[in-house]
Specification:
Helix content is 27%, strand content 25%. By secondary structure, the chain is an alpha+beta fold. The chain is globular.
Length: 273
């Protein structure tokens, strides 16, 4: 990946770009603090805690603000155009000395979207290094369509189905995505990527913000929950959420519960469990 190329050319060539400077170190620290305060408040409520980690942008105003950050919107717009939705903004957290991994996979495998006009902005809220479980990207692998995956449902795999690419991955060509708090990477939904365990004494925290073109839809026409963050929505293919009604608002929790039910039938399609 050559730093002399512009963002669009680098993305087209490699399927990813990093690092993007999004937040200052201080702002990233404040965002992490807001998250961890909310986690502490919900410690005795595991269902709500799980919703917080799956929908931080729908439950915390600070995360709603960050998915609309001008630098991220600009980067995503240069890839996808001006009309943008956020399909998901889930947290990927690896606790200190955690065996949790993310197996080699392609993001769009089980999302049920009708096109590949998607890009993921992965925002680091902690130091991300090889020892903390940084992502690895295989340059150019985004040019392939979705390849076969197998479901492992492995305990330490952070993916919904423990899905793993069923063909050989050229791991020797992989690029390690090191990020500082407040930096982000951008990657294509067909890109082969994975990450290892966290052997450090700090949490590895990232927010995977999935931008899609507003013209896209779910293949089964389910109106899943999205945030409209840029341009126009002339298609109305999704259920558009407004900004959070407040911090950890019960009506927002209920909205997220409804979306979990809607997305579960998509994400677990074909799974007999």
């Amino acid at each position: 990946m050559s730093s002399t190329l512009n963002l669009e050319t680098r993305y087209q060539q490699d399927g990813f770009v990093f690092p993007l400077d999004i937040l200052s170190a201080e702002d990233a620290s404040q965002l992490r603090a807001d998250l961890e305060t909310a986690e502490a408040e919900l410690e005795q409520h595991p269902e709500r805690l799980a919703l917080l980690r799956g929908y931080p942008d729908r439950l915390l105003p600070s995360f709603d603000k960050v998915i609309r950050h001008p630098t991220m919107i600009d980067a995503a717009s240069r890839i996808l155009g001006p009309d943008l939705m956020v399909w998901s903004a889930a947290l990927f957290i690896k606790e200190p000395d955690s065996p949790s991994i993310v197996s080699w996979h392609q993001d769009l495998t089980y999302w049920g979207l009708n096109d590949a006009e998607e890009t993921t902005c992965w925002l680091a809220l902690s130091q991300v290094s090889q020892s903390s479980g940084a992502m690895k990207f295989v340059p150019g692998s985004h040019r392939q369509n979705i390849v076969d995956h197998v479901d492992t449902f492995a305990k330490d795999n952070l993916l919904t189905r423990g899905q793993e690419i069923a063909v050989d991955v050229g791991e020797e060509d992989a690029v390690l995505v090191k990020l500082k708090p407040g930096q982000a990477s951008l990657h294509h939904g067909h890109l082969f990527h994975a990450s290892g365990p966290n052997s450090t004494s700090d949490r590895r925290i990232g927010c995977a913000i999935r931008y899609i073109k507003a013209s896209m839809s779910q293949r089964d026409e389910t109106k899943t929950l999205v945030a409209h963050v840029s341009g126009e929505d002339l298609w109305q293919n999704f259920r558009v959420a407004g900004s959070p009604r407040g911090r950890l608002n019960e009506l927002d929790f209920e909205m997220c519960r409804q979306d979990v039910a809607a997305k579960s039938s998509i994400l677990y399609d074909g799974v007999d469990r």
